């Protein structure tokens, strides 16, 4: 390798080190204006698995169910839901099945009883 090409390789490597190593893999944050992400809708908890940290929510806008993870629950304390409970749901259709479901929760807010 010539000195010029070695210098180019070094400069390229240095630029990559200055970038976030995950920068190339991060997905853009969803926006409320995205056509795939509707406004908040009301949904009903079909099932919730505390031991696994996920469950399924039903709404007319998410036929077949919407997969939800505990990390998307907006509440204080232990994050859990109860079958039959009403929630406000913001969801997306990611274009692939999330654990067998066409829809995935972005935000789940329990409604007052």
List key phrases describing it.
113 residues, alpha+beta, OB fold (Dihydrolipoamide Acetyltransferase, E2P), five-stranded mixed β-barrel, 29% strand, NA-bd_OB-fold
* CATH class identity of the domain at 41-110: Mainly Beta
CATH fold naming of the domain at 41-110: OB fold (Dihydrolipoamide Acetyltransferase, E2P)
- How many helices? 1
Shape: globular
Q: Note the gap between the termini.
A: 71 Å
Summarize the main sheet: 5 strands, mixed, barrel
Which whole number gives the mean pLDDT?
A: 79
- The value of Rg in angstroms is 21 Å
Low-confidence stretches: 8-28
Just name the CATH architecture of the domain at 41-110: Beta Barrel
The percent range for strand residues is 25-35%
Percent helix range: 10-25%
Q: How would you classify the helix and strand content by structural class?
A: alpha+beta
So, the CATH homologous superfamily of the domain at 41-110? Nucleic acid-binding proteins
Output the helix-strand order.
HEEEEE
In the sheet with the most strands, the strands line up as 1-2-3-5-4
């Amino acid at each position: 390798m010539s000195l010029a090409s070695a210098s180019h390789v070094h400069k390229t490597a240095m630029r990559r080190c200055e970038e976030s190593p995950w920068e190339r893999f991060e997905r853009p944050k969803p926006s409320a204006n995205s056509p795939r992400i509707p406004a908040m809708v009301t949904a009903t908890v079909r099932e919730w698995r505390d031991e696994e940290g996920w469950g399924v929510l039903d709404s007319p806008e998410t036929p077949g169910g919407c997969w939800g993870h505990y990390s998307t629950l907006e509440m204080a304390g232990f994050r859990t839901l109860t079958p039959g409970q009403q929630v406000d749901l913001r969801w997306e259709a990611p274009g692939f099945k999330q654990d067998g479901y066409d829809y995935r929760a972005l935000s789940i807010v329990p409604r007052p009883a």
